[in-house]
Specification:
With 293 residues, the chain is of the alpha+beta class. It has four helices and 17 strands.
């Protein structure tokens, strides 16, 4: 299952080091044919997006390549990919950038021909450069934002409402960032997504933030000195403040780090998918995360 990570550090940028780690130990011999990708997106001091990503394949052994990056930003989005749609190529690797916004997605959408037709109606076909359902989802959000004057929250609601009503949906969890804002959506309840509103120093005033899962780890000295809001596919440390987002919950985090929550989408998609409805390849990519150790 793809892993999502998002972080907002408020009005001042923070340094963070992301280690993109090996696949879970439970990865079977099919890992030699399992495409994967890792990517991190931030915003520079000038507000422009910086994306560092590459496709990685577990074909040499059971361990993916490990890469570390030192970055400074107020918002972060990271993604580790188990591909369900699209070949293992850079153009299909998350996060995606459109109109100085970044998005990473976890889940599966089908009916892409219907979605493509909708993008054509909105004049947004050129936004899609790769083959993924994720980039198409982002293009629909971008098209809605262009139509409404740049209200990203309203664009997410409009795009995902249309998706929920119009095409088959297995899951559409997203993290979307700008230079100053972060949005996260869990829809529907298929995959988990957690949020942590972390005070300066953490629960016990620890000297640093160091959070780890089988697939992604983040370490930051700077964020230990001030508050931050973190969104992740699973709790990344032992902090008791991690909260599972509700099904259909949309979060918005601004520069003041206030977390605003809403539930604007239909409780369930009109055309829900189960694992049995997916192709074997797509179903394999959507297996649940391992329980954090």
């Amino acid at each position: 299952m793809c892993r999502l990570f998002g972080m907002h550090t408020g009005k001042e940028p923070a340094h963070a080091t992301f280690w993109l780690l090996s696949a879970p130990e439970s990865l079977s011999q099919q890992s030699r044919k399992e495409p994967d990708g890792t990517g991190v997106g931030v915003f520079g001091a000038d507000g422009r997006a910086i994306v560092d990503k590459q496709p990685l394949a577990a074909y040499e052994d059971r361990q993916f390549a490990t890469e570390a990056r030192d970055l400074e930003s107020r918002t972060f989005v990271a993604h580790v990919r188990y591909a369900s749609t699209g070949e293992n190529a850079l153009v299909n690797t998350h996060p995606f950038e459109q109109d100085q916004r970044l998005l990473a997605h976890n889940g599966v959408l089908e009916g892409l021909d219907v979605l493509d037709a909708r993008l054509g109606e909105l004049g947004a076909t050129s936004l899609v450069r790769g083959q993924t359902d994720s980039e198409r989802l982002f293009a629909l959000i971008t098209a809605e934002a262009r139509r409404n004057g740049g209200d990203v929250g309203a664009a997410i609601v409009a795009a995902l409402t249309w998706i929920a009503q119009s095409i088959p949906v297995y899951a559409a969890n997203i993290v979307l960032t700008t230079a100053t804002e972060l949005w996260a959506l869990r829809y529907p309840e298929t995959h988990p997504l957690y949020v942590l509103e972390r005070g300066a120093g953490g629960t016990e005033g620890s000297a640093r933030l160091e959070a780890r899962t089988h697939r992604i780890s983040v370490h930051s000295e700077a964020t230990s000195e001030r508050p931050s809001v973190i969104v992740a596919t699973q709790p990344m440390d032992s902090d008791p403040g991690w909260r599972l987002m509700g099904a259909g919950e949309l979060l918005h985090v601004g520069e003041d780090l206030a977390v605003h929550s809403s539930a604007p989408l239909p409780p369930q998609p009109a055309h829900p998918l189960t694992l049995k409805d997916l192709s074997p390849h797509a179903a394999k990519s959507q297996q649940p995360a391992a329980t954090p150790s």
